[in-house]
């Protein structure tokens, strides 16, 4: 570089500050991704309310029809780490749009499937879209908003999960009952097309910083913060679904609540979960480790209290609302944990997290079913409580990690 003259020439004026529009457009992008997570969870769980009509139409048992839920969950667990590896440096905006296009086609194929094997094949495609989309979207907040707003943006993105449980699945089930299950799947495909258009309109280019590889994915597990987050996720989600899958029998047989009230009470659980999601989003911005530890301990206390304090209708309802409020903060807080634990490898950490999360859903339901079939109903609550306590110990062990405070 040449020597500077004694009197340097005037420098050009600094560029003017960015107008407010780009900031607004980034929050629109966050909202579009939240719309996407709403669709994903609705698509994954919608068949729960359609097992009987699908089984009747395609001449399979309701148990076999249940594979419409199991298959995409397992496929999503595999797709979450595999899709980012396969696409390399592909612009993540294009990837999300392509996966939403796949979701559109998969639901259209589900609506038109003439046989059960073809319906399951369409559900495999749904699983690929869920795993790939969630693996990228879960850590997208760090690329869309300033660092100080990442917890809030993450809470908005995962707000779609709670909204799907409260509105998406029930509305889809009503459509299936009033019209037909094919119309319900067709409506889901149309909604996916709307999300695709929204993503195209508001997402900025999202070039991959570096390609994800299997070696780098495995390397993330050598990071103690990431490993603790993965272990905690496995224990929390497995524990939750081992018990929550059978919340209907728990409310009916332990709390003495009329079966007709279970549906409205689960709606209340979902509303509490939405509130918990945003409460946790605000809390992790200040105290991440303490928030995750508090959530885990509160979950343990809640389910372990059920066999004692949940033996009346009032007690059962109160514990259910608390459970929903606390569990609503799990996705936001654990995703934020993974972002903080691997700030330079968010996509890799998120892919591992999504894989474990989806796999744990299936394992939890499977473990709970095995226990309910062989032991008293209370045993599934004890299992969940023990897993939550183990998760709390794992989280507590990371208390000295400065990036997670």
TrEMBL record:
Q: Which InterPro entries match?
A: MFS, MFS_dom, MFS_Efflux_Transporters, MFS_trans_sf, Tet-R_TetA/multi-R_MdtG-like
Q: Where do the record's region annotations for Disordered lie?
A: 1-21
Which SUPFAM superfamilies does the entry link to?
MFS general substrate transporter (SSF103473)
Q: Which UniProt keywords apply?
A: Cell membrane, Membrane, Transmembrane, Transmembrane helix
From start to end residue, where is composition biased (Pro residues)?
Answer: 1-20
Q: Name one Pfam family in it.
A: MFS_1
Q: Which residues form the Major facilitator superfamily (MFS) profile domain?
A: 29-403
Q: Where in the cell is it found?
A: Cell membrane
Work out whether the entry's keyword set contains Magnesium. no
Membrane-topology descriptor: Multi-pass membrane protein
Name the Gene3D superfamilies for this protein: MFS general substrate transporter like domains
Query: Does the record's keyword annotation contain Nucleotide-binding?
Result: no
Q: What is its main location?
A: membrane
Any one cellular-component term (Gene Ontology): plasma membrane
Give the transmembrane region(s).
27-52, 64-87, 94-114, 120-142, 154-175, 181-204, 225-247, 267-285, 292-311, 317-339, 351-371, 377-396
Top-level taxon of origin: Bacteria
Q: Which GO terms describe its molecular function?
A: transmembrane transporter activity
Q: Which PANTHER family match?
A: CHLORAMPHENICOL EFFLUX PUMP RV0191 (PTHR43124:SF3), PURINE EFFLUX PUMP PBUE (PTHR43124)
Q: What is this protein called?
A: MFS transporter
């Amino acid at each position: 570089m040449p020597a500077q003259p004694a009197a340097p020439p005037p420098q050009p004026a600094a560029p003017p500050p960015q107008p407010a529009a780009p900031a607004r457009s980034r929050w629109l992008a966050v909202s579009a991704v939240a719309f996407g997570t709403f669709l994903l969870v609705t698509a994954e769980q919608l068949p729960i309310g359609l097992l009987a009509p699908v089984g009747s139409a395609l001449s399979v048992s309701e148990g076999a029809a249940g594979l419409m839920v199991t298959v995409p969950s397992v496929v999503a667990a595999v797709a979450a780490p595999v899709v980012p590896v396969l696409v390399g440096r592909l612009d993540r905006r294009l990837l999300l749009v392509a996966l939403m296009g796949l979701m559109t086609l998969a639901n259209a194929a589900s609506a038109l499937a003439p046989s059960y094997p073809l319906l399951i094949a369409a559900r495999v495609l749904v699983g690929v879209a869920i795993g790939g989309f969630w693996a990228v979207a879960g850590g997208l907040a760090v690329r869309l908003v300033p660092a100080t707003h990442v917890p809030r943006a993450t809470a908005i993105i995962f707000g779609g999960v709670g909204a799907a449980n409260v509105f998406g699945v029930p509305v889809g089930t009503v459509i299936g009952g009033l019209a037909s299950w094919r119309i319900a799947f067709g409506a889901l495909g149309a909604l996916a097309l709307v999300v695709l258009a929204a993503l195209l309109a508001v997402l900025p280019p999202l070039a991959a910083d570096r390609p994800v590889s299997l070696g780098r994915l495995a390397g993330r597990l050598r990071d103690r913060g990431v490993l603790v987050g993965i272990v905690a996720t496995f224990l929390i989600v497995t524990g939750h679904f081992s018990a929550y899958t059978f919340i209907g029998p728990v409310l009916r047989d332990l709390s003495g609540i009329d079966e007709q009230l279970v549906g409205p009470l689960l709606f209340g659980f979902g509303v509490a979960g939405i509130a918990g999601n945003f409460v946790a989003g605000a809390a992790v911005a200040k105290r991440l480790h303490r928030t995750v530890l508090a959530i885990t301990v509160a979950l343990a206390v809640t389910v372990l209290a059920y066999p004692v304090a949940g033996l009346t209708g009032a007690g059962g309802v109160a514990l259910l609302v608390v459970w929903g409020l606390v569990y609503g903060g799990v996705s936001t807080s654990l995703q934020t944990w993974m972002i903080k634990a691997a700030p330079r490898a968010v996509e890799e950490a998120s892919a591992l997290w999504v894989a474990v999360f989806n796999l744990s859903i299936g394992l939890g339901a499977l473990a709970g079913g095995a226990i309910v079939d062989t032991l008293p109903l209370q045993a599934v609550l004890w299992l969940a409580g023990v897993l939550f306590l183990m998760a709390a110990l794992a989280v507590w062990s990371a208390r000295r990690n400065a990036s997670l405070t």
